[in-house]
Structure formats: structure tokens, C-alpha cells
Amino acid sequence: GENVEQHPSTLSVQEGDSAVIKCTYSDSASNYFPWYKQELGKRPQLIIDIRSNVGEKKDQRIAVTLNKTAKHFSLHITETQPEDSAVYFCAASWTGTSGSRLTFGEGTQLTVNP
Amino acid sequence: NAGVTQTPKFRILKIGQSMTLQCTQDMNHNYMYWYRQDPGMGLKLIYYSVGAGITDKGEVPNGYNVSRSTTEDFPLRLELAAPSQTSVYFCASSPQQGLRSTYEQYFGPGTRLTVT
Q1: Residue ranges of E strands in chain A
Q2: How confident is the model over A87-101, as a mean pLDDT?
Q3: Chain A residue closest to B54 (CA)?
Q4: Chain B interface, mutation test: which of A101, A103, A106, most B Cβ atoms within 10 Å?
Q5: Of A16, A45, B97, B115, whose CB count within 10 A is highest?
Q6: How many CA atoms lie within 13 A of A54 on its CB side?
Q7: Touching check for B95 and chain A: CB below 8 Å?
């Protein structure tokens, strides 16, 4: 199966600074890498995803980069705002005999200080 | 479109009791999943289904059972509840087609379960 490691587990930045969260995965066949944001007491919500045929994807202040050779991918948030404070999870797809599923990292608690 | 709905929102069980967590989606998604999330931790896959009548185990299936008789519904059954099953349970669905394709998962609001 897939193993996903996520770092750091906590990250504190000043408003306006950038934040970077990194994940590594073990299965070289993984082809889909989403990032979810989870606010306290809420459900996880997709913020950006990338497929293995793309090296970088950007959506306003959020970008994700993928290095297939090194088997790692990163989330970049620029010009952070207090409302970016949440737990962020990376995930990597894994395909077994019964279809594809996601393996999640353990999460990063991001705190943006005003 | 209600998306993915779960009932109940909260539940307290005594050790040894049983219950069923309900999950329904109205997006005609083939794939459905059950995860548990322990405090401060990530999401662990319990069971998943690629379509009606087909289910498979995830990372942590012990103590749980599922069924998928319709596209819309994917109930999770807890038999003989134990304190270790205290967690938040999330159901999710995905529109992916085929065994190798992967698409966004849409999550329900969760069920917070306490076993005492």
C-alpha cells in the first residue's frame, strides 16, 4: 500500500508571509495528489489537486508542486491571511485490486498570526 | 443537491452496544468511502465501495461492517462498540470511473461518536 509522510506537523507564520507544507509518498504508481483544508469541527474540503503528468499547478494564492522522481509534493500558500488558519492534509492515490483510494498524511496545523 | 449527508451528527454508545452510521449521496457517484479521524490525527480508511454490491476493506476495518445495496447509500455498522472506536467518522463519495482513475472526494459533515 501507500505511505504518506507530511511535514511539519505545526506551522506558525505572520500574516502576509508564505507557508510551505511538504509531503512524501512511497508508491511510484500514485497519480493523483490532492490537498484538503479542514477547519475546526468541519469536514475536509479540497483546495487544490495535481496529477502526475503535471509538475506545478496554481490557483490564486495557492500552488502545488510535484517531483515524481523524488516522490514528494508541496503546498505553497502566499500572502497568508488569518482565515488560512486550519489543518491541511495531503493525500496520494493508491490503486489496489478493488480500485483507487487515497492515503492521507497526518496533517499540518497552520496558524496565521495577525 | 444536498451532496453527502450523514446521520446522526453525534452519538454516545455504551461499551458492547451496536449502531449504524448512515451516509447518503445524491450526486450519482460510484465510489463511496468511510474514514475515521481520531483527535489531532489524519483520516484512516475503514471501508470503501466502487459501486452497488461491491465493498472492500481499507486500513482499519476491524470492528466494522458495510453494505452497498444502492448507489446512494453506504451505511457503516459498528458491532460491540469499544472505547477505541471513539472518533469522528466521515463518509465521502467520488465520481471516479474505472479502477485506475482517481477524482476529488466529497466529504459529509461527519458523525462524532463516543463510546463509554
Answers
A1: 4-7, 10-14, 19-25, 32-38, 45-51, 56-59, 62-67, 72-77, 86-96, 99-104, 108-113
A2: 86
A3: A98
A4: A101
A5: B115
A6: 13
A7: no
